[in-house]
Amino acid sequence: MTEAEIRRIVDLAIEELGEKATKETVQAVVAEVMKEYEKGAPSLTLSDRNLHVPSAQDSGRIIVTAFGKNHVGIVSALTTALAEHQCDLQDVSQKIMQEFFTLIMIVDISKSPSNFAQILDALTKAGEKVGVKVQAQHEDIFKAMHRV
Question: What is the tally of structural domains in the chain?
Fold first, then answer.
């Protein structure tokens, strides 16, 4: 990624965040967008004039996924980590396919005293303890990646 492209992402982030644009919120947004851009997310091309740069404050919801070998205590570990950060679990779907565990959760973090990075860190550590891989992203990034 070139310096000009990074500057364009920063400018778009500041424009989208408006009054919410602080050093921390811009850094968080740019980091998320760059991570998705580097993965080759087709909806996050810089030539797209309608690029929506999601902010941590757009919805206050995150999408959490977890997967790994199934065993007792996975859901408990992950939901305990969320509860410790005062997050509201709004929807959950889990499936056990043979010996493999999969989970998707929609979580409202808007009333949490913790920020997204702290919540993600807690979920990641809880996942490591029970042997599952945990990923999370803001709902707005998820929606931007999957728009037509």
Answer: 2
